[in-house]
Amino acid sequence: MVEKVYVTYNEVHKLCQASADRILNDFKPNLMIAIGGGGYVPARILRSFLKRPSAPNIPIQAIGLSLYEQLPSTNPSNPVETPGTKVTRTQWLDLSSLEMANLVGKNILIVDEVDDTRTTLEYAVKELQKDVQTAAEKLCSDEKTQFSIFVLHNKDKTKKGHLPQEMMDEGRYLAAKTVSDVWICYPWEATDIDEHDKLAASQSQY
Question: 6 forms bridges with which residues in the sheet?
């Protein structure tokens, strides 16, 4: 049986808060790209902690990627999902607009909730790098665009996907917390938040 861990909004808030200084000082992002749907809430919370006096808010753009699929369960009210094998785009940046040009030469922070198999993160980085390179060529720009990654949780397991070695060597990957290979239930997935919080309060520390 899959072990489930329930994470509260307060925990997400505190994980973002604890990570903000390193992100601001080491990654120096001037743009965030949230991977939907799990990266939306962490990115928005993180933006509040990255805000500095007299400086503008860091813009957030969004992409949608899907890797998980729901499996049959003996308990219909308690479905289990498992990582799939193919990444599906459900939303992407508009390559025909100024959106891509605005990425060129930026320090871009990719935000997601969990690094499970790493397949989604690998896909996001590779595809965004290709699109930014295309945009840079159209602009005749040699400005360097640098990607970094922030996730709330990294699962301590063998990864199927791989991130650029340069990114890992330079420490441009940050997980607020590393956990065992459990199923993490985030509060934005709950249909009954009171029940979700009760389950979170009753579990042992993960």
Answer: 185
Residues acting as catalytic residues:
116
Task: Name the phi and psi angles at 117, rounded to 5.
Answer: -90, -10
pTM score of the predicted model: 0.88
b vs e for 134-156, b when ≥16 Cβ sit within 10 Å of the residue's Cβ? ebbeeeeeeeebbbbbbbbbbbe
Find tokens 């917390």 and name the residue.
177
- What pLDDT digit, counting tens, does each position of 101-124 carry? 788 999 999 999 999 999 999 999
Q: Are strands 80-91 and 60-71 parallel, antiparallel or unpaired?
A: antiparallel
Helix axes 40-50, 9-22, angle to 10 degrees: 50
C-beta neighbour count of 47 within 10 angstroms:
19
Tally the residues of the chain.
Answer: 206
